[in-house]
Design a protein that fits this description.
337 residues; alpha/beta; 2 domains; three-stranded antiparallel sheet; 11 strands; 18% strand
Length: 337
């Protein structure tokens, strides 16, 4: 942290706006952990920007004492792209939900990931449309009863981690709103990655989809239903840390560590390793397997806006700075009678 900057506290990032989420909403936890993490970045308030689309999560910029944009449904990645290319000195966060990012914004989402724009995207996943009062979303499970699917959804849900992997995102992670220490740590690591970092957060909508992630959120079950990924360490889980994950061919399987199986027999997590293993982890779902949380992938790669600005610099060097007035008055012109 620069000694020239004042030391900020989490409270310095809180705006003067009343927080208008339903009491008990998981969004409060994500907001709190974001504020708790931001001082560690060592950046002044005016160098941070939060951009959102439309949805409950997209109120987020109002509650941050930073710059922010409450943009158009699904189009936050487009706004973030323009800002990062024109102002590479700013730290940009995109705040979105499962409906905002994966339905109307699906195209913008995947293209931002493939371009590897230097932003941190936090995807609040509550498996429902909350702001519009309880319709099923792209991540709702089959059979979801909602106001728009009164007899149950027949759609197969999207897996945000798999979508991000398919778009070749270089940083992909998952956390849980109630697992606050893990969430803060994951947000910080994502913010340190140079390139697009995606953090899916299991978030509870206690009004329209209460308990959607109860197996992963409840402290009494979390140790057995989630697998906390740690770089360079074996994949061990369970309340008594007595279960592990190993590969049987290309299929993961749960093994009992009390039966003579050693840690060396297990899968070891490598954030920069084989992408095939990352895809296997992404497909591990409850109740057959514990669901992985933490950083799935953290790989360096060229950043989109660096390449764009490099092209601009090269053009200026070769042809000089442009003259907008000359452009307007140059070339072919005509008059409309």
């Amino acid at each position: 942290m620069s000694t020239d900057l004042p030391v900020l506290k989490s409270s310095d990032f809180a705006s003067d706006q009343d927080i208008r989420w339903c009491p008990g909403c998981g969004d409060y936890s994500i907001l709190a952990q974001m504020k708790k993490m931001l001082p560690d970045l060592g950046l002044p308030l005016e160098q941070i920007v939060f951009i959102s689309g439309i949805g409950c999560s997209s109120r987020f910029p109002y509650y941050m004492n930073t710059y922010g944009m409450h943009s158009i449904h699904g189009r936050a990645p487009a706004f973030a792209t323009g800002l990062r290319v024109s102002r590479p000195d700013l730290k940009v966060f995109v705040i979105t939900g499962d409906g905002d990012a994966l339905s109307i914004g699906g195209n913008h989402f995947i293209h931002m990931l493939r371009r590897n724009l230097d932003v941190t995207l936090v995807l609040f996943n509550n498996r429902i449309y909350g702001l519009t009062k309880g319709q099923y979303s792209p991540t709702s499970p089959e059979g979801q009863l909602s106001k728009s699917t009164p007899t149950g959804s027949v759609d197969h849900p999207l897996n945000p981690i798999s979508v991000a992997l398919g778009a070749e995102a270089k940083f992909i992670a998952r956390s849980i709103d109630t697992h606050i220490k893990h969430l803060a740590k994951t947000l910080y690591q994502a913010s340190q990655h140079r390139g697009t970092s995606v953090v899916e957060v299991y978030q509870n909508c206690n009004v329209f989809n209460d308990g959607a992630w109860s197996y992963a959120q409840d402290k009494s079950t979390r140790a057995d239903t989630t697998l906390e990924l740690e770089h360079g360490k074996p994949m061990i889980f369970g309340k008594n840390r007595d279960k592990g994950i190993r590969l049987n061919g290309l299929r993961p399987e749960i093994v009992d560590l009390s039966s003579g199986i050693s840690h060396d027999d297990l899968l070891f997590h490598d954030e920069q390793g084989d992408s095939v293993l990352v895809h296997i982890l992404a497909r591990m779902r409850h109740p057959e397997f514990p669901e992985p949380i933490g950083v799935f992938r953290d790989q360096p790669s060229e950043v989109f806006e660096d390449q764009i600005r490099g092209q601009i610099d090269q053009a200026v060097e070769e042809r000089g700075r442009g003259d907008l007035n000359a452009l307007f008055h140059g070339g072919d012109t005509w008059e409309v009678a």
